[in-house]
Amino acid sequence: MLLLVVPTPPSFAAKESVALRNGQVVLVTGDKDGIHYRLGEDLQKFGQLHGFDVVVKSSLGSLDNLMSIVNDDRINIAFVQADVPSWISQRLNQSDRPGSDIRKYLVKVRTYYPLFDEWVQIVARKKLNSLADLKEGKIAVDSHKSGTFLTMGNLSLKEKIPFDLVAASGSEALEKLLSGEVDAVASVSSDPIVTLNAPQSADFHLVPIILTQADPVYVPTEIPVGTYAWQKEPVKTVSVKILLASYDYSQDMDICQRLTRFSDVLRKNVNWLRTHGQRQWKQVDFDAVEAEGKKFLRSHCLSY
Hints:
single chain; alpha/beta; D-Maltodextrin-Binding Protein, domain 2; 10 strands; 37% helix; disordered N terminus
């Protein structure tokens, strides 16, 4: 008798059993070529070390992520810019319809974990030196579901400077800028806009962003000299906090407890991310997160 045995690869079996011990956490991030997706991959590796199966999904950006948390039961946490819920909150105050669609996008969204700041970057020809110079101008802003689109729309309203926001990113945005089809390219990121670091971008510069109206969501800062190869001096701008956002899971104790376990492990072992992950993890204010632990890291289990 011939007995055929097909063994299970031991390395895969071990990884699977460890990964499933604490359950699955589904994270929606951003574009697959962007920093948020790479941060998600860091969390995926981190999760495997601690028994969590972290599933990383790409998206069109922060606004898309927020809608995913609300509309898709399979999404547990997401990277969201702090001005996204702020923008929606303002519109909640303007809405007199309790059942309006816009209301549901904020009411049950929770801050799961505050992370780091990202710069608002606008690259344009050197003759354009302020937001006011971009009045009525065309600005490439990734997709219309991105955080950059929302940020530029928000700044337009706050500063009362109308922009024509165009959906374009990456090499397409660079081509439009070089051809004059758009006047500027905007991005909210802690990294430079990769395609605009090229030599052919030497005729362009970072537009200083100085707001006339103070806003706690937009913190004055500077983009350091040398962030771009052609950048010879620091440039004033504003930054936006990136959050890990979640949902009100107070009615689903299974997910609530799973996310609580994950947040506890993340808070206690986050130095692993600082050592092995993207440099942005080093910018997280861990002491502040520890002090605010009960407020942030349990909020997905609170109905308020």
